[in-house]
Design the sequence.
């Protein structure tokens, strides 16, 4: 999976548009649109901002796809909104 595909996967997991990602990463929408239209790899500073918006490190971003159940669970929880996280926590406390 290439970098832009991975960014798209993480973005879509969160239900974000490109504009949402731009706002969360504090980047301009044109910066992201240029990446997609040119199918270019982002600069390191841009990728750091994107990873920060997703709540993942660069190492986690580039980690192999075959992840442990714990790693997948953590990744999926990070993708939740604060409201969804509170709901999940309430559900887990019931068990």
Sequence:
């Amino acid at each position: 999976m290439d970098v832009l595909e991975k960014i798209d996967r993480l973005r879509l997991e969160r239900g974000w548009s490109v504009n949402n990602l731009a706002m969360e990463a504090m980047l301009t929408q044109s910066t992201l649109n240029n990446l997609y239209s040119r199918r270019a790899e982002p600069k390191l500073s841009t990728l750091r901002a994107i990873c920060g918006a997703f709540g993942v490190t660069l190492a986690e971003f580039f980690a192999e796809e075959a992840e442990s159940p714990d790693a997948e669970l953590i990744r999926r929880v990070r993708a939740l909104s604060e409201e969804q996280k509170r709901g999940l926590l309430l559900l887990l406390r019931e068990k």
Summary: The radius of gyration is 14 Å. Residues 3-94 form a domain with the 434 Repressor (Amino-terminal Domain) fold (CATH 1.10.260.40). The chain has a mean pLDDT of 88. Residues 66 and 72 are 9 Å apart (CA to CA).
